């Protein structure tokens, strides 16, 4: 919700109506802008959920939050995307081909049952892909190559 209590009010109401306060809370004081969110996620996030839309856009983009999770070395479950497939495979991030509720839940359970070392290897693989393709240094190198042509 970013830093907006107002924007999160509708979700806070749903959490309370479903009596989920014990497991879900909304924290609006953390953002990348104020430097609090990255550290919080690295310390508290066991898995990052990517995008699961069925629009043409969702099936063809690389979502920033997937790249952010790679940079923070957080395991990722996301819907299949042609753009993601260009860089990642199931040995780096966990892509759900048909992102139905059942398939997403099944993937969460499968990842939870995996050996922690396997998940760590996949996460390191995703981080290497991030470093090689999406980091500031990789971007700078690629832009400079283009400018030299």
TrEMBL record:
This is Glycosyl transferase family 1 domain-containing protein.
């Amino acid at each position: 919700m970013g830093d907006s209590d107002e924007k999160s009010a509708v979700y806070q109401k749903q959490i309370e109506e479903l009596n989920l306060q014990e497991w879900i809370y909304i924290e609006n004081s953390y953002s990348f802008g104020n430097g609090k969110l990255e550290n919080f996620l690295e310390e508290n996030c066991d898995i990052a959920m990517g995008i699961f839309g069925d629009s043409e856009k969702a099936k063809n983009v690389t979502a920033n939050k997937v790249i952010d999770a790679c940079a923070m070395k957080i395991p990722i479950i996301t819907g299949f995307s042609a753009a993601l497939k260009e860089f990642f495979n199931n040995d780096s991030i966990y892509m759900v081909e048909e992102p139905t509720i059942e398939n997403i839940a099944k993937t969460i359970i499968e990842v939870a049952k995996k050996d922690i070392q396997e998940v760590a290897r996949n996460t390191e693989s995703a981080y290497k892909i991030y470093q090689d393709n999406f980091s500031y240094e990789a971007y700078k190198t690629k832009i400079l190559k283009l400018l030299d042509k």
